[in-house]
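Deviation from plan, reported transparently: magnesium ion complex.
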Amino acid sequence: MENNDIKISTNSLELFYGDIHALKNINVEIEERKVTALIGPSGCGKSTFLKTLNRMNDLIPSVRITGDVYLDNLNVYKQYDIVELRKRVGMVFQKPNPFPMSVYDNIAYGPRIHGIKAKNKLDEAVEKSLRNAALWDEVKDRLKQNALGLSGGQQQRLCIARVLAVEPEVVLMDEPTSALDPISTLKIEDLIDDLKEKYTIVIVTHNMQQAGRISDKTAFFLHGEVVEFDSTEKIFSMPTDKRTEDYITGRFG
Amino acid sequence: MKIKSQSADKAATIVFYIIAGIVVLLLAVFVGYLLYQGRDRLNLHFIFSAPVFGKEGGGIGPQLFNSLYMVFLSMLITLPIGLSAGIYLAEYAKPSKVTNIIRFCIEALSSLPSIVIGLFGLLIFVNLTGWKYTLMGGALTVSVLNLPVITRISEDALRNVSPSIKEASLALGATHWQTILKVLVPSAIPGLVTGVILTTGRVFGEAAALLYTAGMSSPVLHFSNLNPLSHGSPLNPFRPAETLAVYIWQVNSEGLAPDARKIADGASAILIIAVFLFNIVARIIGRSLNAKFTGKSSRK
Amino acid sequence: MPKPIKKSRKINFYYLKHEFYGKALVTFFGLFLILLTLLLVVFIASKGFSTFTKDHVSPLQFLFSTLWKPDRDLQSGGPVVGALIFIIGSILISVIALIISTPFSIGTAVFMTEISPRLGKKLLQPAIEIFVGIPSVVYGWVGLSVLVPFIHRVFGGLGFSLLAGGIVLAVMIFPTITSVAADALRALPGDYKEASYALGSTRWQTIRKVLVPSALPGILTGVVLGLARAFGEALAVQMVIGNSIRIPGSLLDSTVNLTSIITMDMGNTVNGTVWNNSLWSMALLLLVISFLFIVLIHKIGSKGRVQR
Ligand SMILES: Nc1ncnc2c1ncn2[C@@H]1O[C@H](COP(=O)(O)OP(=O)(O)OP(=O)(O)O)[C@@H](O)[C@H]1O
Ligand SMILES: [Mg+2]
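Because the crystal trials were delayed, the predicted structure below was used instead.
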């Protein structure tokens, strides 16, 4: 099959918030086990696009969507059950948002709501996810403590671990490091590098260097449109579109 | 002109300080007076022993017990219902006619005079059920009084939970209901607990709604008998149950004991102390839960 | 290639268990509040109307006659139940309470928000919360054991009086008016104040000419809420007004109101008699008035919103 390594694709995707036309004719293909970065000025629709992939936009009453989004060639809006979709497509938010409960309960939350009750299975899932999120060594002695007591960077890795515990195939990240200090940011970037062995990652970032460091492909958004979508190398060395170049070189108004 | 307006400003400021001073002073004198008047009744004998008809030296034991038991029962009834209604309003209700009607009903119920609610209780929980005056009837009536309050507290507490937590849960594939049950309600606990304790204090002092539902008498209670189905048991909810607040009113209007004045003083002092306790406990618990839920205590 | 996950029967069962049962439960209890309110209105109304339907008392006579002889025997013309005395009593006491309480409440609210927010938060806010928490019988008892003898000694008369009722109620509604007024003042946008100070106004001028007028809808809401509470309070008032059935000639005369007569006579009258039925009609009247207060508050609220 020709599209074998395409995990997610969109077809003439349009999104409106009431009268605001936030996404215009988006046609992209996101490859499996690659890191795809979404860049673009504030308000251009990056977060909006990300949320169409796991249907978080469904929460907003004014949203109207046309066009299609496919995950593994099945229509996200028509052929998936929403619980099943979100199990497969996890999401990490801009601000770390742990639940006000223990570290352990935070990680076990996903498995528990998806029906896992056995203590040993949960223990296993917690340890595995925390290890995958490179947090295990730091929190293994404080699993019973409130997650809100962790540092910001630890909280964000906890949120990543929480997503991993559900064993997703795709992880969406919306500016996951923008609220963090440089060291925590580096740790998360390393983590993303490890994760792409197993997961398809789509990440929104405002940081050009970061996009350059971690992503394989980059999409440049402007006013709700995808201006250019190509390999990161190409986008950063010789963009085709003038607007992309202006943005990347910081000449953008 | 300038000088005049400035001295007017000074004078006004002084007047405002005087008003605030009067308010605080009034409260201090009020509370101080009650505690002082009730001081020689603030002893275990008064608190635990039963009233003696027509003689001096009776206590308020049964009334105090009835008050506590009634608070407990009514909370048992109101909490699940009020929390559910609060969840509905905070999470499921869409802006619509029905939602507006519910909100109007909450407002209407919570501003009804408690004597009117008491009369409703008389019709339903006393006459219609045929229970006569019972603790259960009182508890149910007080629940009608409390339901709108607890509903509002629950809704507010849920609305105050950060939406990012809700998003996180939904993004993990939880259904809305799972999110409510496992994340939103637990996160709303600090707000809930504070509000509920303060409401509890209100039930404790309620009298008008209870006169004709729980009645103005209490049978002799045998505190050794803890079988809730047996007749003289304090735990039996289907018996008349005069509460402390009702007793204060009744002892004055009916001259049951020669030392009515002393009894009312003592009982008022105890009610005031209870009000303070409820306030302080609500604050302390609220603060400590808040610290726990924002992780401040566990960081150290 | 994963299989399509269409909405299968299994998935529906999943939602039934993890969404619809819970949603149905809380929706039921949300709607239950409507049911409860309807039930309450219907029950009180059906009892309250029996004075007019069964005993054939004319509603106008009930509302506007001062003749209260519920136990008059048939030879002398049978019972008459005119409730005007009680209605007037309720109105007079509430209005007196408002007149005493409102200046203090607004003063305190201004103090808490404009003069010293620090003391407001540390001292007055807790004080108000405690005032709210004090049970009404305790207010009544202090009124009875302190205020009534005081009025008797200083002004003469029995002490049990309209004035005593008004003062006790003034204290009871003070926290209601104050907290609503303080909220209204706090909600004003900060630039109102800045603009006024920038024009060289003093604080007092700002308060008088800008802040209080712009917060007026909110303050009025507080006043109406206070009025509603005063109108419906039963025991505290009943304990201090003396309960003589007459229209008071002066502040120092004893009098009676709707809630007091209900409180006192409900237990002494036989179910089904005109006397008893008329008490239920008064309860219905209280209910209607309390609903009217809410409508009034909404009117004030929507006006306030239009102005802003
Ligand atoms: N809930 C909403 N209701 C209405 N309009 C919205 C909503 N969310 C976003 N928008 C609008 O949609 C457009 C795209 O917003 P979006 O949040 O996707 O931008 P973004 O690229 O993520 O920006 P940023 O870099 O600041 O996060 C903006 O014009 C925004 O104002
Ligand atoms: Mg964004």
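The domain at 81-307 of chain C is CATH 1.10.3720.10 (MetI-like fold). We consider this an acceptable substitute for the interim report.
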